[in-house]
Amino acid sequence: MQGNCIHRLGDLQLRILQVLWDDGPSSVAAVQRATGEDLAYTTVATMLRKMEARGLVTHHESGRRYIYRAAVKRDEVTHGIADRLVDRLFHGSLTGAVNHLLETREVDPDELDDLERLIQRHRMRS
Prior knowledge:
This protein has 2 domains: 92 residues, Arc Repressor Mutant, subunit A; 32 residues, no CATH class. The chain is 66% helix and 11% strand. The protein is built from 7 helices and 3 strands; from the N terminus they run ααβααββααα. Strands 1-3-2 form a 3-stranded antiparallel sheet.
């Protein structure tokens, strides 16, 4: 799977992958229900076929149903999207990205503590 292909995921494709990662192999109807969206069965089936053509999902037949599973790992997708976001919006600056998030989002004090622990852990590795 080429990383470039992963970067070009639409919102629906990402939601479908999240369903397959969280719930495991699923039928079209199960994916349709789990997205929480008011989507037609045919819309989900068409998207899954397109995603399979791109190598994002695979399927096997179970009776008359197709059962789909993710063909890419969650961390491949999240790392690819996050890296591209930092590169494109913040010119590769992790500091700029984190600062933006801290300035524009509500940050729970526990999350700040977690961030401080992560920073300390990374300092000890360096």
